[in-house]
Amino acid sequence: MDAAxxxxxxxxxxxxxxxxxxxxxxxxxxxxxxxxxxxxxxxWAGVQLRKGPNVVGPFGLLQSFADFFKFVLKEIVVPSGxxxxxxLAAPLITFILAFIAWAVIPFAPGWVISDLNVGVxxxxxxxxxxxxxxxxxxxxxxxxxxxxxxLRSAAQMVSYEVSMxxxxxxxxxxxxxxxxxxxxxxxxxxxxxxxMFGGGLDTLPTIVVMLPMTIxxxxxALAETNRxxxxxxxxxxxxxxxxxxxxxxxxxxLFMIGEYANIVFMCAMISLLxxxx
Length: 277
Hints:
Shape: globular
Radius of gyration: 21 Å
Helix content: 55-70%
Distance between the termini: 33 Å
Number of strands: 0
Structural class: mainly alpha
């Protein structure tokens, strides 16, 4: 073993490698979120027959970065009657939980921050904790509108986590493991080896269960991340933004980053669990 290899085997080398991996994943997700948000705005603008962002940079490609600096530089307004500690902690918790779930996501063979044998259980635990950030944000605002919005959001998230958990159990039984890397490896080969289509020719009859389960997971993921037509927590009919109505500036940005990070995370999950990674 040479000196460079032996260094990465030491506690200091392992710590530096882990921190480096975390930074690479975090920065990559943040950059992808910037362009996902831009695409989201342009697509919905097209649906509503209007122009999307097209001024900041070529084709509006820098719009998300301009929005980022705007949120960072704006003054943080905290309602006078709110619980200030909980009010500011809520978006931070949502942001952190949205990113630590990525620790067990394999990006390529051997490219995973933490290759846990109970990776699926870890994800279910982290996703369940995400409800607390929303409840805390609505309660700490000291206003009935965000509080009712947070209860509605939490009820929707908890409800669809149940269906997602039941679907994931089918994948665990089919793959025989809760390790995401091994679940992806078990789907190597042609398209009929994907869990969506039964996981292989020898288990092809299970397609009658797994294909509907894939559809159920997709619908549950839309509801879990408040995407249309399950965007009821936004409360547009009441002209308020649900649990976020009292938030502005950076705390609001943290909530939005957490929400969009969860959207990308659900895309990764449906790819890993059902489409062979």
